[in-house]
Write a structure and sequence with these properties.
- By secondary structure, this protein is an alpha+beta fold.
- It has 7 helices and 10 strands.
- The chain has a 6-stranded antiparallel β-sheet with strand order 1-10-9-4-3-2. A 4-stranded antiparallel β-sheet has the order 5-6-7-8, with no helix packed on it.
- A hairpin with a 4-residue loop joins strand 5 and strand 6.
- The longest helix has 49 residues.
Length: 284
């Protein structure tokens, strides 16, 4: 959780930097536009002042008698200082700095977007875990009594797709044996209630392990690993039994905690003594 808070603080800081950079760019653009308008007005005023010169040819047409007076009146007036704006060349060094600032701000903006996306994804992931769905707590959708009745009547596991889990009965008379298996400690409460939650993923290479109705075992179609009704390994290349999820039973309702897949029992574990009850579905 600490890294999430740090990421949120970093996103806020980078967002502030990006906002400040945008404000400075806007101010610079405004100054540039104002300077451009002033330059244009100055040029127009300069052109207007130039147009006030008197054409000497028109004055000579008025008569030779007033030529001297007209020439004196037509002398161009001195142009006021500062009427024409002086064009200042662009400083190449300042231009290079502006380019560096542009790229630096672009990098910061990209970093801010990336960190923000990561933070949003992390928050969404944590919210999904707390709200339910795989990776969090998933309700089985049936009571413990209904699930056990389904197992007995249909002779197959009760499958919960949202939890990617098989719910199977665990014989209460075999619980003392289960207590001796260290890997069963996190899920022992469910076994004592008469139920086991098995993760559908094969611990060998991750294939989904289906139920075989003839052998009454779980048999992986990928590499023929086989497991008993309670997920203990019976054959194949799997390194252990099927992994488990802890279950919570409240008011008869079953909730599966899929946040942590607990490793299955080691090879050789056989707490129920269940053998194959018919031909296999995989591997003949």
């Amino acid at each position: 959780m600490g890294w999430l808070i740090l990421a949120i603080v970093l996103v806020a800081a980078l967002a502030a930097v990006a906002a400040l950079a945008a404000a400075r760019r806007q101010a610079a653009a405004t100054r540039s536009a104002t300077t451009g308008r002033l330059a244009a007005e100055t040029v127009q005023a300069d052109r207007s002042a130039t147009g006030t010169d008197v054409d000497r040819a028109e004055l000579e047409a008025a008569g030779r008698a007033r030529a001297q007076e007209t020439k004196q009146a037509a002398t161009p007036a001195a142009r006021a200082a500062g009427t024409v704006a002086e064009r200042v060349p662009v400083d190449e060094e300042e231009l290079a700095i502006s380019r560096r600032q542009f790229f630096n701000r672009g990098i910061l903006a990209t970093l801010a977007v990336s960190v923000g996306t990561l933070g949003a994804a992390a928050i969404a992931f944590l919210y999904a875990r707390s709200a339910g769905g795989f990776g969090g707590k998933v309700k089985a959708g049936a009571s413990l009594a209904d699930i056990l009745a389904f197992n007995e009547e249909r002779r197959e596991p009760y499958y919960v797709p949202e939890a990617r889990t098989y719910l199977v009965p665990y014989p209460k008379e075999d619980v003392p044996k289960a207590r001796k298996v260290p890997q069963y400690r996190p899920v022992l409460a469910g076994m004592e209630a008469g139920i086991v939650a098995l993760y559908q993923k094969c611990p060998h290479l991750g294939c989904k392990v289906p139920w075989c109705p003839t052998s009454q075992w779980f048999e992986c179609p990928c590499h023929a690993s086989k497991y008993s009704r309670v997920g203990e390994k019976r054959g194949g290349p799997a390194p252990r039994g099927m992994d488990h999820f802890a279950v919570e039973i409240s008011g008869g309702d079953v909730t599966i905690d899929t946040s942590t897949p607990w490793p299955g029992a080691p090879i050789g574990t056989d707490t129920t003594g269940q053998g194959a009850e018919g031909p296999p579905c995989v591997g003949g």
